[in-house]
Amino acid sequence: MDQSIQPDAFIKVCPSRDIVARLSDKWSMLVIALLNRQEEPVRFGQLKAQIEGISQKVLTQTLRKLERDGLVKRQVYNEMPLRVEYHLTDMAHDFVPIVQDFKKWAETHMHEILEQNKRYDDHNTDRKQF
User: Fold this and answer.
1) Which of 34, 51, 83, 102 has its CA 20 to 30 A from that of 123?
2) Which residues of the chain have pLDDT under 50?
3) Which domains does the chain have, with CATH numbers?
4) Dihedral of the CA atoms 64, 25, 54, 50 (nearest 10)?
């Protein structure tokens, strides 16, 4: 990897832009926040049960993406039945405060934003939808 590249997500070809896109995905944020709340590693079924609305396919893709980026560690136990557990890496723990702050901000301002959406939509009903 070229270490001479100066990270700048405003530049189209900067890899940090892809990282921002991957980690700002709602499912990535929720998986990281949930894994952080757990004392012990978590099994796939536990994650699926606690994150309402996520499909098995999307959870699998999200966990693979986070594992590839080095934020989630996947541990496979050669047992019958096969047991797989997930936990956050040290690098992910550096990211957790950002995720927690973002989640808290969204929850704190949810009603204001929903009201603003309604006002905007009511005011712009005559605009052409794209």
Assistant:
1) 102
2) none
3) 15-123 (1.10.10.10)
4) 90
